[in-house]
C-alpha cells in the first residue's frame, strides 16, 4: 500500500447551493496554485444535499488538482457543521476554510504561507466592516454583530465572521472538537474557545475583500436579518457555555470517510 502524501495545506470550501460560482472558483484556484509554492496542497469541497448540482460541478474539476475530494455532508445543517467535517477530513498540517465565492482574494494565501512558516496557531482575515458591504442594513448588521461578539465572547477580535481562517492541524482538532454551533455562529464560537484556551490569533488584513453577491441576496439560503438575530442569541449561548466551563474538554468524535 502506498504511503499517503504529506499535505502541507488543506483548503476547505463549504459549498451549499453554490452551483453559480463553484466551477469558476475552482478554475481560478487551480490556476492560482500553479503559480505559487505552498508545499503540497489538497482541496476539499464539502457539499450538503442540494438540488442545484453543486457536487457534480465540483467533481468535474477534480482533474485540475493533485489532491482533491468532494465530501458529501448529508442533509443541510449549517456552514459550521460542513466546516467541521472539512477540518477533520483534512490531512494538512495547516487547514484553511474559505468561501466558495472567493470573496477574500486568493493573494492572501501568501499571508497564510507566512503564518505556516512561522508555526502560527490561528490566522483570521479581518475586514473593514463599515465599508465592505453595499447596503446600509448589511453594514449596520455586520458592525453591530461584531461589537456584540467582542463584548460577549471574543474580546479584541476585530472581525469574527470573515470566511477565511486557517488553523494549525493540532489546534483545529482541539477547537473543532469542542464546537457546538453548527450554523453561521460557529466562527464566533471557535474564536471564543481559542481565546479561552489561550491560543494566539494572528490577523490577515483584507482591505480588498469584496462581497460578490447583490445587496438583495443575503446569505446563501438565509435572510441576513434572521441570521443576525439568531447569531445574537447564539452569542449569549456561547457566553453561558464559557461561564459554565463547557468547553474544557472535547466532546465531538468524528468518524472520517475513506480517504
Bin the helical content. 25-40%
- List low-confidence stretches: none
Largest sheet: 7 strands, mixed
Count the DSSP helices.
8
Overall pLDDT: 90
Strand order of the largest sheet: 3-2-1-4-6-5-7
Structure class: alpha/beta
Total beta-strand segments: 7
> Which range does the strand content fall in?
15-25%
What series of H and E elements makes up the topology? EHEHEHEHEHEHHEH
3D shape: globular
Assembly form of the protein: single chain
Please give the alpha-carbon distance between the first and last residues. 13 Å
Q: What would you report as the Rg, rounded to the nearest angstrom?
A: 17 Å
Description of the structure:
This protein has 259 residues and is an alpha/beta fold. 37% of the residues lie in helices and 16% in strands. The protein is built from eight helices and seven strands, in the order βαβαβαβαβαβααβα. It has helices at 22-34, 54-59, 79-89, 109-117, 136-152, 169-176, 186-196, 224-243; strands spanning 9-14, 41-48, 67-74, 94-98, 122-126, 164-168, 201-205. A seven-stranded mixed sheet has the order 3-2-1-4-6-5-7, with helices on both faces. Helix 2 (54-59) links the parallel strand 2 and strand 3. Helix 5 packs parallel to helix 8. The longest helix has 20 residues, at 224-243.
Amino acid at each position: 500500500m502506498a504511503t499517503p502524501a504529506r499535505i502541507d495545506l488543506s483548503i476547505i470550501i463549504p459549498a451549499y447551493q453554490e452551483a453559480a460560482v463553484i466551477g469558476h472558483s475552482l478554475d481560478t484556484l487551480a490556476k492560482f496554485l500553479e503559480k505559487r509554492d505552498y508545499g503540497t496542497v489538497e482541496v476539499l469541497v464539502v457539499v450538503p444535499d442540494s438540488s442545484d448540482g453543486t457536487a457534480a460541478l465540483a467533481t468535474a474539476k477534480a482533474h485540475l488538482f493533485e489532491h482533491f475530494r468532494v465530501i458529501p455532508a448529508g442533509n443541510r445543517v449549517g456552514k459550521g457543521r460542513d466546516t467541521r467535517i472539512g477540518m477533520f477530513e483534512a490531512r494538512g498540517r495547516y487547514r484553511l476554510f474559505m468561501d466558495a465565492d472567493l470573496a477574500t482574494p486568493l493573494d492572501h494565501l501568501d499571508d497564510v504561507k507566512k503564518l505556516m512558516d512561522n508555526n502560527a496557531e490561528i490566522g483570521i482575515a479581518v475586514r473593514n466592516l463599515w465599508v465592505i458591504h453595499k447596503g446600509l442594513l448589511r453594514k449596520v448588521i455586520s458592525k453591530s454583530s461584531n461589537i456584540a461578539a467582542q463584548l460577549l465572547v471574543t474580546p479584541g477580535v476585530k472581525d469574527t465572521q470573515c470566511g477565511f481562517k486557517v488553523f494549525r492541524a493540532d489546534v483545529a482538532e482541539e477547537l473543532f472538537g469542542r464546537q457546538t454551533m453548527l450554523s453561521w455562529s460557529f466562527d464566533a464560537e471557535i474564536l471564543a474557545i481559542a481565546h479561552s484556551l489561550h491560543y494566539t490569533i494572528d490577523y490577515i488584513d483584507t482591505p480588498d475583500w469584496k462581497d460578490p453577491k447583490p445587496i438583495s441576496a443575503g446569505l446563501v439560503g438565509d435572510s441576513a436579518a434572521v441570521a443576525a438575530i439568531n447569531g445574537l442569541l447564539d452569542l449569549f449561548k456561547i457566553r453561558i457555555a464559557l461561564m459554565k466551563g463547557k468547553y474544557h474538554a472535547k466532546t465531538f468524535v468524528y468518524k472520517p470517510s475513506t480517504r
